[in-house]
Amino acid sequence: MGTCNGMDLLLIRHGITEWNLQKRYLGHTDIGLAEGELSKLDPLKLALRNQSYHAVFTSDLKRCKETAHYLGIGTHLKEDARLREMNFGEWEGKTYGELKSKPEYQRWLRDWEQHATPNGESWSEFTSRLDSFLEDLIQCGEIAKINTNQPIVVITHGGVVRYFLWKFKAVHSFWDLPIKPGQAFRLSVSREGEGWLCNSLLAVPMQEKEK
């Protein structure tokens, strides 16, 4: 076993689902992409054309695997259930409007790091499995030999992308960046003592500045 001191990651949030369009909580419920919205992935697909990757990891849920195949990087996927979104339990498929009158929902909104959703997943459970994935990635002997011109691709969910960006200190807080469906970020990270530090962060495809 080896460890790595630096790596490039390409973090991709899956494309749009019907529940995303309806603003419903979507965690472990296994639904696919909205067919009418697939073209929204085309700019990213074009940006990734003819690129090579060290490895491609994906959440085991349909919407992530379908995103990988549409982008043309679905060959030799390494599925990992640890890359799933947070499990929202009884609130899966519900909207803010349907939940806002519930005291337990308001309590969760105020302090989501301390309160779990009913029959769902707590913040500590969510982050522990993501940390476990990262630790395995870092400790893997194969990953220790990374060519930094070939990033590790991780196709996952909005909350997971947010957590990884925060974990690697690419952002100051969990909510710093909006993570839209089909959005991707490439970040270069290096080991700093016992932790990790982001050296660079780029949106993919690069977004043009507004005039």
From TrEMBL:
Transferase among keywords: no
Enzyme class: hydrolase
EC number(s) stated in the UniProt entry for this protein: 3.1.3.73
Alphabetized SUPFAM superfamilies for the sequence: Phosphoglycerate mutase-like (SSF53254)
CDD domains assigned: HP_PGM_like
Keyword Hydrolase: yes
Any GO MF annotation of the entry: alpha-ribazole phosphatase activity
Alphabetical UniProt keywords: Hydrolase
Name of the molecule in the record: Alpha-ribazole phosphatase
Organism per entry: Evansella vedderi
